[in-house]
Amino acid sequence: YPRSTIHKKVIMDLRKIKVVRTDDFDLIKNLHKEIFPSDQCIKHKDSNAYWIMKYKDEIAGFCTVSSFTPNTLYLERAGIVEKFRGNNLQRRLILTRERYARKNLFKKIVTYTKIYNISSARNLQKSGYELYIPEKEYADKDCNYWIKYLDQKKK
Question: What CA–CA distance (Å, rounded) separates 140 from 24?
């Protein structure tokens, strides 16, 4: 899609983008509804952590994680508000959650993307994630599953 004026402004001021941890589940739910209006809303509060991405006084996006197994972190949801898309912000949210995983001694990270979500798949690939087949599917049938080993040793 064509870049709007805000895209050019955001690109020039990317250093002003801040990612901050939040405990405000209602804020996360509302962002989810705004960014993914046709997706089922997040219903639970059992995520280990939530972050929001801010540009000045505006919220540019959010992300969440939860513990999948004691050694595996699950990248739940991440979304960028439409006018901020196209600035590699999703990759920054991936890196934020990877830092969290390392700090909390997780050995690997898993997630999934819908097969038509090419931009998220590219961002995961560029961040070192690989396609894998889980022992038990944990998402819809039309999904690709991704994994990243944090200690670089595949188990």
Answer: 28
Taken as a whole, the chain contains a residue count of 155
d(CA 111, CA 107) in angstroms, rounded, equals: 14
Q: List the chain pLDDT tens, one digit each, 155 residues.
A: 344 445 444 454 777 889 999 999 899 999 999 998 887 766 666 668 999 999 988 999 999 999 999 999 999 999 999 989 888 999 999 999 999 999 999 999 999 999 999 999 999 999 999 999 999 998 888 999 999 999 755 55
The CA angle 132-133-134, to the nearest 5 degrees, is 110
Q: Do β-strands 72-80 and 108-114 pair in parallel, antiparallel, or remain unpaired?
A: parallel
Q: Confirm if 27 and 106 have CB atoms less than 8 A apart.
A: no
In the sheet that holds 143-149, the strands lie side by side as 17-22, 49-55, 58-69, 72-80, 108-114, 143-149, 130-132
